[in-house]
UniProtKB/TrEMBL annotation:
GO molecular function, one term: ubiquitin-protein transferase activity
UniProt domain HECT: residue ranges: 145-484
Gene3D superfamilies: Hect, E3 ligase catalytic domain, Hect, E3 ligase catalytic domains
The entry's keywords: Ubl conjugation pathway
Transmembrane regions listed in the UniProt entry: none
Pfam families recorded: HECT (PF00632)
First and last residue of the signal peptide: none
SMART domains to which the protein is assigned, alphabetical: HECTc
Organism of this sequence: Didymodactylos carnosus
Superkingdom classification of source: Eukaryota
The protein's name in its UniProt record: HECT domain-containing protein
Annotated InterPro entries: HECT_dom, Hect_E3_ubiquitin_ligase, HECTD3
Length: 484
């Protein structure tokens, strides 16, 4: 094995790995073009190459044993399964994808494609969430989704008839329905998700992220809402299977539990910069009060008692055993918590309950989403995904890759090519002049989808650019769409 590790890169068979290694500088010190990678820029290239080769060989070994590991076993019941799950971030995506595709092909269904009817006029008025495109589709698809969504790559899971529009679904209306459903999910039109606190206050990171709606911790979430969350998970499973991607603006606190990773304080602060401000300030003041009294004399102990009592009786006197949730509503942390003051004796319990609430605030909602996801895609395969990989498998790349789209483009006119002047102008405008939202709107207009596949092989077909041969004044022509 050592001989292979230190041998020339020609001994490696994976073309991507070879291209990466060949592209590295031959200088002993890492080339300046890697200076943006703060953990790598100081490492000599010879060591980078060795690390890449070790990683490559590791993936060869792990690929040979993955099919024999039962990843469905609960944590703590199999040392081997636990070990594989713990190193999943070192397993390259292509290794995972090959195994996952095999399992998906073994579990697909050939059920007849269901045709659903959608009323876009009713959805445009949206007097109730039941008028939305999402809910119209949910009512017609939910009953058999766990089976009917198990389609092969690029398959259409349902066909769409738009009421009053006389549309023929050759793919465009289907993709348009998915885009409309995602737009409903990340909106206030449904009682499922709310804009995160950072978005509402226009502060901190992730201001465009949507989090599960908040329900009182002591009450049961209604079955109808529960089933809709399950359906969203089933849509995620459909996206993984068919590559019909979803535009869902969810933060890490949604994706991590879906691959059974625990969320952290940092995940909560990423969507609510003020989430722990109250208890952080409380603990800071208690600590400062203690450090001001380092002597062990009776006088200093009495002074400390006076200071700490003053802290809770005056500065912190308004605190009770309750909390303001992410929906700006107040919930009790313990029974009758709204009338229990925070004191020296119970402030540690208060801080503990406060953190527990924030870390568990969305656990039930995400658990229902996970149930739906696992009903369409076998859980053992998802155990190999990192949260970021799951998000990319469901939603595609977070940034629209115009270079990838260009690679997957064909030109219908015989004399057109990438270097034709008007074609070059088209790509320059799209790549350099459009912002991300404009690129997304462009995709929706020409393709009925708001995201791109992550890899070239995931494209169902080429993006097509065709000249318009107009008999009349071209500036008076209306846009035309073609779908095949």
């Amino acid at each position: 094995m050592n001989k292979n590790i230190v041998s020339d890169c020609q001994s490696l068979t994976d073309s991507f790995i070879v291209e990466f290694l060949v592209g590295l500088s031959n200088e002993f010190i890492t080339d300046t073009k890697y200076s943006t990678y703060t953990l790598l820029h100081h490492i000599p290239v010879v060591y980078l190459k060795m690390r890449i080769k070790i990683l490559y060989l590791f993936n060869i070994f792990i690929k040979n044993v993955l099919s024999d590991v039962d990843l469905s076993l609960p944590t703590g019941t199999s040392m081997l399964a636990d070990a594989v799950r713990s190193i999943k971030s070192y397993i390259v995506y292509n290794t995972k994808v090959k195994l996952i595709i095999t399992v998906l092909e073994e579990t697909y269904r050939t059920d007849e494609t269901q045709t659903i009817q959608l009323d876009s006029v009713k959805a445009s008025t949206c007097s109730t969430y039941k008028d939305t495109i999402f809910y119209q589709a949910f009512r017609q698809l939910y009953k058999n989704a766990s089976l009917s969504f198990r389609k092969l790559e690029h398959a259409r899971v349902w066909a769409v008839t738009y009421i009053g529009m006389h549309s023929s679904d050759s793919g465009g209306p289907y993709r348009d329905s998915i885009t409309a459903m995602c737009a409903d999910i990340c909106s206030t039109r449904l009682p499922l998700f709310i804009l995160c606190p950072n978005g509402r206050t226009n502060s901190g990171l992730n201001r465009d992220r949507w989090i599960p709606n908040v329900f009182p911790p002591q009450t049961t979430i209604p079955n109808k809402i529960k089933n809709i969350y399950i359906f969203i998970g089933q849509l995620m499973g459909m996206a993984i299977r068919t590559k019909n991607l979803l535009n869902l603006q969810f933060p890490s606190l949604v994706w991590k539990p879906l691959v059974r990773q625990s969320i952290t304080v940092e995940d909560i602060e990423a969507i609510d910069i003020q989430s722990f401000a109250t208890i952080n300030e409380l603990e800071k003041r208690v600590k400062q009060t203690k450090t001001m009294n380092t002597s062990v004399t009776v006088d200093s102990e009495e002074k400390y008692t006076d200071n700490i009592d003053f802290l809770f009786d005056s500065i912190m006197s308004e605190l009770k055993f309750d909390i303001v949730g992410s929906n700006m509503k107040t919930y009790e942390l313990v029974p009758k918590g709204s009338i229990i003051p925070i004191t020296v004796a119970n402030h540690k319990e208060y801080c503990l309950k406060y953190r527990e609430y924030h870390l568990q605030e969305f656990s039930r909602q995400v658990d229902y989403i996970r149930q739906g996801l696992y009903s369409v895609v076998p859980w053992p395969m998802l155990a190999l995904y990192t949260p970021f990989e799951l998000e990319e498998a469901v939603c595609g790349k977070p940034v629209i890759d115009i270079d990838l789209l260009k690679q997957q483009t064909e030109y219908k006119y015989e004399n057109d090519h990438h270097n034709a002047p008007y074609i070059k102008r088209f790509w320059t405008v799209l790549k350099d002049k459009f912002d991300e939202e404009q690129k997304r709107l462009f995709l929706i207009f020409v393709w009925g989808r708001s995201t791109l596949p992550s890899r070239a092989e995931d494209f169902e077909r080429k993006f097509s650019i065709q000249r318009l041969d107009a008999a009349n004044d071209v500036d008076k022509m209306l846009p035309s769409t073609y779908d095949s």
